[in-house]
Amino acid sequence: MKYIKNFLLLLFLILSFYSYGGVGRFNVVDGSIGIQTSHNSKFHAHFELQILPTHSLNNIIVNACATQIGYAWYIDDEIALRSGWQGGVTGLHTPEGECVNYIFYSSLVPIGGTVYPFANAHYIGFDMYGLVDVNKKTIGVGAALVVRF
Predict the structure, then answer these.
(1) Which of 4, 29, 37, 118 is 20 to 30 A from 144 via CA?
(2) Nearest in space to 79 (alpha carbons), one of 128, 20, 36
């Protein structure tokens, strides 16, 4: 799993620089990095991979990746609003790398948006979205720093 994760991380960095809209995502809350479609695209998609594993109970290491797809129903020069779906997988591993379990999850994104608020820096923005987990009946939020290359 460790080598696959390193390969995917390198692949995502290359894709964010050379294709796929040239937008990188940096989520400091859960320590993940990813790529997303450009600001002007009607179809929104992004993928994040957690680069720093977190430890939970009994020395179990948690790694995760998430993807989001949706339709941007409003696009302006500084903001793009969308709705969509988010899914992901969380892997639970021992410190030796032995897989304990994989947990898959799915959520609806009723509203999300990418905002570029700085007039003199059109390449730095924020991506914020709401999450509704219909199975657990919970509401959450997500956010990331986005950088256009």
Answers:
(1) 4
(2) 128
